[in-house]
Automatic annotation (TrEMBL), chain A:
The entry's keywords: Cell membrane, Membrane, Transmembrane, Transmembrane helix, Transport
Protein species of origin: Zavarzinia aquatilis
Name this protein carries in UniProt: Spermidine/putrescine ABC transporter permease
Residue ranges of the TM segments: 7-32, 63-89, 101-123, 129-151, 233-254
UniProt superkingdom: Bacteria
Places the protein is found: Cell membrane
TrEMBL record, chain B:
Main subcellular location of this protein, as a coarse class: periplasm
Superkingdom per UniProt: Bacteria
Subcellular location: Periplasm
Pfam families: SBP_bac_8
Gene Ontology molecular function: polyamine binding
GO terms (BP aspect): polyamine transport
InterPro entries (alphabetical): SBP, Sperm_putr-bd, TAT_signal, TAT_signal_bac_arc
Record protein name field: Spermidine/putrescine ABC transporter substrate-binding protein
Keywords of the record: Periplasm, Signal, Transport
Annotated Gene Ontology cellular component terms: periplasmic space
Automatic annotation (TrEMBL), chain C:
InterPro entries assigned: AAA+_ATPase, ABC_SmlMolc_Importer, ABC_transporter-like_ATP-bd, Mo/tungstate-bd_C_term_dom, P-loop_NTPase, Transp-assoc_OB_typ2
Protein's GO biological process: quaternary ammonium group transport
Classification via Pfam families: ABC_tran, TOBE_2
Protein name stated in the entry: Spermidine/putrescine ABC transporter ATP-binding protein
Transmembrane segment boundaries: none
Organism: Zavarzinia aquatilis
Molecular function GO labels: ATP binding; ATP hydrolysis activity; transmembrane transporter activity
ABC transporter domain span: 12-242
Keywords: ATP-binding, Nucleotide-binding, Transport
């Protein structure tokens, strides 16, 4: 099908890209600027902040903590979120609307309040605060997002495919494993990525339900009290570069998947 | 820890998306190893370990390593940007923090929440070497028993950019002068704007204002609001405002002078109406018992020793309360920080203690913010 | 390509099966037996319950009453995967995330056949339907005809006891459908498969099926070989649904038991039936049994001086509409270019052509 | 087939988890919000918050207003961009690259992204420096930073990718043949967009709207760091009540009020966006066979 050039959406996409990259470019410039204050014109070039960043072990430690938590949350939230998406879309049970609404309630509660509430509950139940409770808290925060991401493709899913699989001798769970989930995988994967990002950047729940845990957002949030040191900007610039390169590496795969799932 | 769910490890002919699953499994694998490693660390820690709830800039690695080497006690940290965040957590219990930083401006509220324990200054050799004025400052002892060890202090007053204003300032009124419209910054946190305005209006007890006085202060602040460029949330925010020229005059903290080294001619005013003095102190929480109690007190003593105070001044420009630390610092650093004649600062400053009815102050400040 | 016939298909017995959705009776007490290796078509308009019946045999729909037996054992209440049947779905339902070969091999893999064996049998089945070259293709790249063949190959690969076909060729365009119908029928016979085919297309049923079950409103109207249904329709619905023809009023006018005489539109016609003398009856007259010629051109016409109401020329043949003594009748004649509407004609009915319903 | 036990199986884990770890605290909050000075069941808190003279309803409206403008801005950015990527860009490689780029900006912590805006909109920020350099303006525009516009720009920046992804997915699923048919019947590219693509992408749009609206009403960062004196939104006030004033009952009341108001706004938002998207497909085209009169389009 011939696709001509629509100038308006193209212009908006271009503007969107500039808008997306503006802050990234800005703080990268500042991360090479000697002055710890963020204003133009830049007063020179230095890589001291990067040196200082690598010297400061705290960022390394909290990075490991944040990645560990985010990875575990990604796995748990994706499994539970996907199952709940099936419940919302396919279950034929009484009060389903109410239960589905209940399932999305955590979305509406401000994170700060959710954090304080979770901590009180964990202590009351006698759960020792620590890594486990942070992961649990983040799973409660992130799972509704995963469910939303999986629900869209699930609504469009052609039920005849499941019927065909069953008809050919696959039991209900084999059908799920070999037909339904692989076809829904793009939605599930973007839900998983979202869960990882939400947990990785989350501060409040990590602070309140954690103990002896200093996640990266906690460190950054606390550092900014005395003025966000350029070392944090250096970290941000570095991590963006690393991820951008990784994304370009994985691009061919993503392209094939995008084409595949047309 | 590693979640080996049915979904991920199953083979099955998913030709197209198999690489995704390997990638997800790898991530989960990493999580397993890292968590295991982190989980295990506490178990192998040295005999005693304490957790310090504080601001990140008070607990930089080079500040803690001398104590950890000397005493063999590991000091873990739990960062917050505002002491009230930690207090909320301590109130619920199970926070696992043994010593926390709180300021004169907030310690009464924290004590009121019943999360602190008294300490024994006899066990702290450095207590006698502290600047005398801090031993008797308000907000350190409750029910006659000492609770806090002040280790950093400062005063708050009007700070202005001489290059921009070209005149000396010695009156709080400048903050309310329309001449400086759009160039003023006022503090957002800790009800400090209310207190500063109380000083300006000559109210006798800025920390125990009656509702009427609070209303008066609120009216003045609402009138001032159009002149204000921004309410700064913390010292970092304020430094940025002054250094980037967003504002030229503000009510600020002593550490703001730190930006002089970046070629900005900031001057400290000694307004006629007076200034505020505050300190940050270490307090022992009720979660410290037995062994951790001893370790906590040893650590609190270290904070007012000569090494910690010196590093504090050098790296982040904070003022120490320990005379031995001042002696250990090099001379011109002492001079730029104004530590050489700390009496002149302390003489005119009123100790900033937490307000008697915090909710009244909060309601007043809400009115200003919501206006 | 020598094709080893699969093990012989099973017999299928559908015994007093019914299915209601609320108080709408989709399938009403239907009984039907299919011999091993036989191809039976269920023919009926949409909403006649034929798809529901097929669904119940495949286990997708739970029957309310009666019994369904495949190869002698009942499948009532069993989930689809436990039933020795495989379905070719109406929109094919091919798995988009799997290749052609993986689709065809899917049934074998899930039934525990080893990968190498499954691959061999899948390729073999693709060869049978002539799509071996497309084994690794993505489903999205196939044409309609190719998809239909892949769907058939996928179902046949598991050597099902019964092959169920749900309007398999409905989505295809005219020319391909004709060719594929014959090809599919030949294939099923060669592989000795027992098949149950659901369609609303009479031509498809006639081309492919050994026997046809006509359904209407959930009921089984008639079940028998195509020719018998066409020649001796049991009900008025079957008469009009299969082929075309007109139903006329008639009255038993005498004649013997072997050669009963009926008076139709003023003429006497022989029609086999045991209706008592004097009783009225409705008779089916097939257009192709009525021969029409200009008045006086036929030696012993059944009806004389009829009026030719309309002529519709459809290429090789033309459809004529006649009016005889108030009764309209349809006729079919090869050529018929010389006939003009309004002309008076004679028509002769072939011997024993009329059928009493 | 007894599907019921299997459908319960898929729902139970999540419902169980929120049952004990979310409903309990929420119920706790609810109870706390009803405990004023005068004993347990008292509406003091609600009277204080919603009664006349209290300025909190104004704050609430301001919060929801800000969040809605963020949603509108996100739609203005994400929908055309998603349409261009899904329907006008041929190579999946470019689509993946652009989406990956936007996703990467998401990985940077929200705090760093928000502080970066100070460096862009400030008195001597990027925008003012460039404009002054080009001589477009001689005095820096002060209104750029420390005001409602800066907050909205930053909030949109932190939320619009949600909309971009959901709308992109929704538009990708629209069969190209619909577009071809539309053009074939004489509709220009713009008409095809408004009449066919938008209505069919409606689910993506209202899901995206919710995903943008929800985090925006409860965020504290942007108003605090960029809001200047206009920084007070519901979430910051709740934070102050919980932490600074340690008045949990009042904090809970404000939270419940925000949740209810937020919930209503979300419902309205979803319905409006869905209806508008569908409407754009029907104006001037909708017909009903029922009316006997000559083609009276309703």
């Amino acid at each position: 099908m011939r696709r001509e050039f629509h100038w308006f959406p193209a212009a908006v996409t271009g503007a969107m890209l500039v808008y997306s990259l503006l802050p990234i470019v800005t703080f990268t410039l500042f991360s090479f600027n000697p002055s710890p204050f963020y204003a133009f014109p830049l007063t020179g070039f230095t890589t001291d902040w990067y040196v200082k960043l690598l010297a400061d072990g705290r960022i390394g430690d909290s990075l490991v903590a944040s990645v560990t938590i985010a990875a575990s949350v990604m796995v748990a939230a994706t499994v539970i979120g996907t199952m709940f998406a099936f419940f919302v879309v396919r279950a034929a049970v009484p009060f389903k609307r109410v239960l589905a609404g209940l399932g999305f309630l955590p979305l509406v509660v401000p994170v700060l309040v959710l954090a304080a509430g979770l901590q009180v509950t964990f202590v009351e139940i006698g759960l020792p605060l620590g890594f486990g409770t942070v992961i649990l808290g983040h799973v409660i925060y992130a799972t509704p997002f995963v469910t939303l991401m999986v629900m869209a493709p699930l609504y469009r899913y052609n039920p005849a495919l499941d019927a065909a699989a069953r008809d050919l001798g696959a039991g209900p769970f084999t059908t799920l494993r070999l037909v339904t989930l692989p076809i829904l995988w793009p939605g599930i994967r973007s839900g998983a990525l979202l869960a990882f990002l939400l947990s990785f950047n989350e501060w409040a729940i990590a602070f309140f339900t954690g103990r002896g845990v200093n996640s990266l957002p906690m460190l950054v949030y606390s550092l900014q009290r005395n003025g966000l040191p350029p070392t944090v900007l250096a970290y941000a610039a570095l991590s963006t570069a690393v991820v951008a390169i990784a994304a370009l590496a994985v691009l061919p795969l993503v392209t094939r998947l995008l084409r595949g799932s047309k | 820890m590693k979640r080996n769910t049915h979904l991920i490890s199953a083979p099955g002919p998913w030709a197209q998306s198999r690489r995704d699953f390997l990638k997800t499994a790898a991530l989960a694998g990493v999580a397993g190893i890292a968590a295991g490693h982190l989980g295990a660390r506490p178990a192998f820690a040295k005999a005693s370990k304490i957790v310090w709830g504080t601001n990140a800039d008070y607990a930089q690695p080079d500040m803690l390593s001398p104590f950890q080497k000397a005493s063999g006690i590991e000091v873990a940290t739990e960062y917050f940007s505002d002491p009230s965040e930690l207090v909320t957590k301590l109130r619920a219990g199970g926070a696992g923090v043994h010593v926390m930083t709180d300021g004169s401006y907030h310690s009464d509220i924290t004590y009121g929440e019943g999360v602190l324990k008294p300490i024994d200054t006899a066990k702290m050799p450095n207590w006698d070497k502290m600047i005398p004025a801090f031993k008797t400052a308000g907000g350190l002892a409750f029910d006659g028993k000492p609770h806090g060890i002040p280790y950093a202090w400062g005063t708050d007053s009007v700070v202005y950019n001489f290059d921009a204003l070209k005149t000396e300032i010695d009156d709080l009124g400048a903050l309310f002068d329309p001449k400086y419209k759009g160039q003023i910054a006022m503090p957002n946190g800790l009800f400090e704007s209310l207190v500063a305005t109380a000083l300006y209006l000559g109210i006798e007890k800025p920390f125990a204002m009656s509702e009427k006085e609070l209303d008066e202060v609120t009216k003045v602040l609402i009138k001032q609001k159009p002149l204000v460029r921004s309410y700064w949330n913390d010292i970092g925010d304020l430094k940025n405002l002054m250094a980037t020229g967003e504002v030229t005059i503000c009510w600020g903290w002593k550490m703001l002078l730190d930006i002089k080294q970046h070629g900005i001619d900031v001057r400290w005013a000694h307004p006629k109406q007076g200034e505020l003095a505050w300190y940050d102190a270490a307090f022992m929480t009720k979660e410290a018992e037995g062994e951790t109690e001893e370790a906590t007190m040893a650590f609190m003593d270290y904070l007012i020793g000569d090494t910690y105070g010196a590093v504090l001044g050098k790296s982040i420009g904070y003022l120490t309360t320990s005379t031995s630390a001042i002696a250990a610092m090099d001379k011109d650093l002492v001079k730029t920080l104004g530590l050489d004649d700390y009496d002149s600062f302390l003489a005119k400053a009123a100790w900033w203690t937490s307000p008697t009815q915090p909710d009244l102050y909060q309601k007043a400040w809400d009115k200003v913010l919501n206006a | 390509m020598t094709v080893s016939p699969l093990r012989k298909g099973h017999a299928l017995e559908i015994d007093k099966v019914s299915k209601a959705y609320g108080h709408f009776l989709a399938v009403d007490d239907v009984s039907l037996a299919v011999e091993p290796g036989e191809i039976v078509a269920i023919l009926g308009p949409s909403g006649s319950g034929k798809t529901a019946l097929l669904g119940m045999v495949g286990g997708r729909i739970a029957a309310d009453g009666g019994d369904i037996r495949i190869g002698g054992n009942s499948v009532m209440g069993l989930p689809p995967e436990k039933i020795d049947a495989a379905t070719v779905f109406q929109d094919y339902a091919l798995f988009p995330h799997l290749s052609v070969l993986e689709n065809v091999g899917f049934g074998l893999r899930v039934r525990g056949v080893a990968k190498a064996e499954a691959r061999k049998r899948a390729l073999e089945m693709l060869a049978i339907v002539g799509l071996e070259a497309l084994a690794d293709r993505n489903i999205a790249q196939l044409s309609g005809g190719q998809r239909q063949r892949v769907a058939t190959a996928r179902a046949l690969a598991v050597h099902p006891g019964i092959l169920l076909l749900d309007e398999p060729l409905g989505a295809l365009d005219r020319q391909i459908r004709g060719r594929l119908q014959e090809e599919l029928a030949r294939l099923l016979r060669r592989l000795n498969v027992t098949a149950l085919l659901v369609t609303h297309d009479q031509e498809e049923a006639f081309t492919m099926a050994d026997r046809i079950a006509v359904m209407q409103g959930g009921k089984l109207e008639q079940y028998g070989p195509p020719a018998e249904l066409y020649r001796w329709p049991a009900t008025e619905f079957v008469a009009t649904f299969l082929g075309n023809g007109t139903i006329v009023e008639g009255r038993r006018a005498g004649g013997t038991d072997d050669l009963p005489l009926f008076e139709v539109a003023g003429a006497f016609v022989v029609a086999r039936s045991r209706v008592a003398v004097g009783a009225s009856a409705r008779l089916l007259v097939r257009p192709e049994h009525v021969e029409v010629g200009p008045a006086g051109s036929q030696p012993a016409p059944t009806w004389r001086d009829a009026r030719l109401a309309g002529v519709v020329n459809t290429g090789g043949t033309s459809r004529l509409t006649l009016e005889i003594a108030g009764t309209t009748l349809e006729a079919l004649s090869l050529g018929g270019f010389d006939l003009v509407p309004g002309q008076t004609v004679d028509c002769t009915l072939a011997a024993e052509a009329a059928v009493v319903l | 087939m007894n599907e019921t036990w299997r459908s319960w199986l898929s729902g139970t884990p999540w419902l169980l988890m929120i049952g004990c770890f979310f409903i309990l605290p929420l119920a706790g909050l609810l109870l706390m919000s009803f405990s004023g000075e005068g004993g347990f069941p008292s509406l003091d808190n609600y009277r204080v918050v919603l009664g006349e003279g209290s300025d909190r309803p104004a704050v609430l409206l301001r919060t929801i207003g800000t969040a809605l403008s963020v949603v509108l801005l996100s739609i203005a950015i994400a929908v055309p961009a998603a349409y261009y990527l899904a329907k006008c860009v041929l190579s999946a490689r470019v689509q993946a690259a652009v989406l990956a780029l936007v996703a990467v900006t998401f990985l940077v912590g929200p705090l760093v992204r928000t502080v970066a805006w100070r460096g862009i909109l400030g008195r001597s920020g990027l925008v003012n420096t460039v404009l002054q350099g080009l001589g477009v303006i001689d005095e820096p525009i002060m209104a750029l930073l420390y005001g409602r516009p800066a907050v909205i720009v930053a909030m949109t920046y932190n939320a619009f990718p949600f909309m971009l992804f959901t709308v992109f997915l929704a538009m990708k699923m629209i069969d190209d043949r619909y577009l071809a048919a539309g053009r074939d019947l004489g509709a220009g590219p713009a008409t095809v967009f408004w009449r066919i693509v938008l209505p069919l992408a409606a689910p993506g749009i209202w899901t995206g709207a919710i995903l943008v609206f929800v985090p925006t009403i409860s965020t504290v960062l942007e108003p605090e760091i960029l809001g200047g004196t206009s920084g007070r939104l519901a979430a910051t006030e709740i934070r102050d009540q919980f932490f600074h004033a340690l008045n949990w009952p009042m904090g809970s009341t404000l939270t419940i009020v925000l949740i209810v108001a937020g919930g209503v706004a979300i419902l309205a938002l979803a319905l409006v966006t869905a209806a508008l998207a569908r409407l754009s497909g029907r104006i001037g085209i909708a017909m009903r066979a029922g009316s006997t009169g000559a083609g009276s389009a309703r």
